[in-house]
Amino acid sequence: MAYPRTQKLFSKLLHGADYNYEQWLDSPDILADDFRLMRLAHCNVMSVGIFSWALLEPQNGHFDFGWLDQLMDQLAENNISAALATPSAAPPAWLSHAYPETRRVNVQKIRQPHQRRQNFCYTSPIYRDKVATINRALAERYHNHPALLLWHVSNEYGSSACHCDLCYAAFHRWLEARYGDLDSLNRAWWSTFWSHRYTSWEQIEPIDPSMQALMLDWQRFISDQALDFFLAEANALRQIAPEIPLTTNFMQPDVGLDYWRFAEYVDVIAWDSYPRWHQDDDAITGMRTAFYHDLHRSYKHGQPFLLIESTPSVTNWQGVSRLKKPGMHKLASLQAVAHGSNGVQYFQWRQSRGGEEKFHGAVVTHLNSENTRVFRDVSEVGSILEKLSDITPTSISAPIAIMYDFENEWAIQYAQLSGSVHKNYQETCRRHYGAFWRHGLGIDVINARTDLTPYRVVVAPMLYSLSLESAARIEEFVRGGGIFVTTYLSGLVNESDLCYLNGYPPTLRRTLGIYSEELDSLTDQQQGSIIACAGNSLGLQGSYQFHHYAELIHTESAQVLASYNSDFYAGYPALTVNAHGSGQAYFISPRTEDRFLQDVYSSILNRAGLHNPLIKALPVGVSAQIRSDQDRRYLFLLNFSDQPQQVELTADLHDALTAAPTGRMITLLPYGSSILTTNADST
Ligand code: GAL
Q1: Final residue before a domain boundary, out of 364, 386, 408
Q2: How far apart are CA 13 and CA 16, in angstroms?
Q3: Atom 5 (ligand 1): residue with closest C-alpha?
Q4: Which CATH number characterizes residue 106's domain?
Q5: Which pLDDT tens digit goes with each residue over 318-350?
Q6: Ligand 1 within 6 A of CB of 274
Q7: Which of 608, 638, 665 is the last residue of a domain?
Q8: Whether residues 249 and 339 fall in one domain
Q9: Catalytic residue among 22, 101, 156, 370
């Protein structure tokens, strides 16, 4: 598929790092050596200028671009591109002092001092104006510069709330736009509860967890306000440099921003990944990281994304961060590419001498040498990426989607229900994802607004908050032949956190063929069991454990495939399937052990004829991903275990780096990885 705005960007796989050149201006020898080292490490891009506002505008309205001119020229001379940042993530001290309104106010209504970074108010017109001025200046100066490849807008927008008067006034306007009048708002929020009825917009203060619909809307507002701030930044660049693609670096999804909305306005998704390798089971960490990569690919519906930050070594802000064992750096980097990243970038190129991040991993450490294990690992990845440049136009075909919806996550977080202590929504989505990941299939991670028609199987665990529109989309998907799976704690409230009466929304009730009556929650020490029904259509056998949640449901048109086998609800349905139109809708009533999910999903995949065509089976801890276009297929085999593993192929493939034939049995070293290739039509 062609993505015109990223064609030049992705003419090759990108390899590079955040480069804090401005920290070394009085060490020209170090700077000169950097370019030699970058060439040695096969780097072709650097993210620059991210935290440099204090140097670019040392005094209000006085700019100094001399050092950045020099950096951009040197990058161009060395054939390295620039992802040039706007500096809004870290305002200079003079700005925060001259304009106190630009500093955030905390929930106790205390204005915060100038400290750290990402410390500004998204609403402040003065801050927006100052940012637009410097962004325009950067765009005017560099939009024709040969090094400029990508705008890196700001850095990791967050969702820390600002409680200043400007933000509250903007929130009230936002509510007015959403609800029209206070009567509608009071109805939608069920505000008669505890006498919260509002008679003027100004009475609404987003500090009240008892009003869950209010807090949910506040979260939406913060996300929208961050997006609005981003759009103001982006517009300043686009007006002057419309041809340069633009991104902003996302973080893990639980930061409280609706990245799906941001995704509509960036040209390419970029994200910062910091897995905690070698602390727990690396296969679980690998699965978790795969889930995040797939989510980032899904934000723009399969378009290649960019791993724009990852650590070459340790991550200093994690309480514990293990050194990467041999093979791990290459494995983690290739995992991103396997899931659709068209590059691997690091934080950071060179360790700073001072400040909070001086002990964060970097390509070049305080040793100031290329003779390090990390530098060699990085160079190896760089040289692999150079050889793989044909892969950039390929994509991943995903017949399966896991629905992990942010607004649903926020609603679940605020809800007080039985079993509140172990809601674990994201982790639950990942567990369901993991049961598919083991099969080496492409999986998208979608939200409740996503079009479901491209998928064969859609799994939506704990879809607590469900709009009528989403429920209707699910029904249509199943009617049209899709396989849908959902679980306990689904379909209970609408988008304002108002409970549905009469069971589920009618569309969902029809689709699932059940209704739900009660929810039991168990302590961490308690468990129960369920048992497969004789002759069930998924071929499940025996019993499985459940924990945390057990929903008590009744079937209407659905068939029971497994039942509870313990407590007073023994005999109640634990797994049902409803044939609806030409599809099927499954319901899992309790939170089960993973083995149950693995058995259920293996059987669903078998029945649907979905399998990775290039492999026979995958050992536990090994993952497989295919990237392909009309000509070629690339198979990535990734071993997240500390043991050697063997994978049997269904066809004779070639090593993608050496072109040597590989035979059908591939041996992967501990933390080993392998990229194989074949024509698109083989097998
Ligand atoms: C990221 C951030 C970088 C750097 C890095 C350290 O979240 O964008 O600037 O701080 O973390 O891991």
Answers
A1: 386
A2: 10
A3: 347
A4: 3.20.20.80
A5: 999 999 999 999 999 999 999 999 999 999 999
A6: yes
A7: 608
A8: yes
A9: 156
Is the pLDDT at 683 greater than 60? The verdict is no
**162: phi then psi, degrees, rounded to nearest 5:** -110, 130
309 ligand 1 Cβ < 6 A: yes
Q: 154 CB under 6 A from ligand 1? A: no
Q: Tokens 């400029």 sit at which residue? A: 148
pLDDT at residue 657, as a whole number: 97
Q: What average pLDDT does the structure give for the chain?
A: 97
Cα dihedral 662, 663, 665, 671, rounded to 10, equals 0
Nearest to 620 by CA among 645, 602, 603, 595: 645
> Is pLDDT of 161 > 80?
yes
Average of pLDDT values for 242-268? 96
Burial class (CB in 10 A: 0-12, 13-18, 19+), 451: exposed
347 & 438 share domain: no
Question: Is there a catalytic annotation at residue 648?
Answer: no
Residue 344 shares a structural domain with residue 456: no
CATH code of the domain in which 667 resides:
2.60.40.1180
Q: Which residue out of 50, 321, 347 has the highest number of ligand 1 atoms within 8 Å of its CB and is therefore the one to mutate?
A: 347
Q: What is the pLDDT, as a whole number, of residue 78?
A: 97
- Please state the atom number of ligand 1 nearest to the C-alpha of residue 274: 12
Q: Is the CB of 156 under 6 A from ligand 1?
A: yes
Do 579 and 667 lie in a common domain?
no
Other CB atoms within a 10 A radius of the CB of residue 512 amount to 30
Is 156 assigned a catalytic role?
yes
Pocket flag, ligand 1, residue 346 (CB < 6 Å): no
* 270-280 confidence digits (pLDDT tens): 999 999 999 99
Q: Does residue 250 line the site of ligand 1, with CB under 6 A? A: no
Task: Give the pLDDT confidence of 471-516 residue by residue, as tens digits.
Answer: 999 999 999 999 999 999 999 999 999 999 998 999 999 999 999 9
Tell whether 356 and 448 lie within a shared domain: no
Shared-domain flag, residues 263 and 297 = yes
Residues in the chain: 683
From 119, 272, 313, 318, mutation site for ligand 1 pocket: most ligand atoms within 8 A of C-beta: 272
At 116, the pLDDT band (50, 70, 90 cuts) reads very high
Q: Which position among 309, 407, 409, 475 bears the catalytic label?
A: 309
Give, in order, the Cα–Cα distances in Å from 627 to each of 11, 175, 281: 16, 44, 26
Q: Which domain holds residue 371?
A: 14-158+227-386
Residue with the two structure tokens 């049995």: 665
Ligand 1 centroid, distance to 255 Cα (angstroms): 14
Pair (143, 244) in one structural domain: yes
Q: Are residues 599 and 638 in the same domain?
A: no
What does the alpha-carbon distance between residue 299 and residue 305 come to, in Å, rounded to a whole number?
9
Q: Which ligand 1 atom sits closest to the C-alpha of 155?
A: 8
For residue range 396-455, what is the model confidence (pLDDT) as tens digits? 999 999 999 999 999 999 999 989 999 999 999 999 999 999 999 999 999 999 999 999
192 by DSSP, 3-state: which? Answer: coil
The token pair at 12 is 């090759």
Q: Report how many domains make up the chain.
A: 3
Q: Percentage of the chain surpassing pLDDT 90?
A: 97
What's the whole-model pTM score? Answer: 0.98
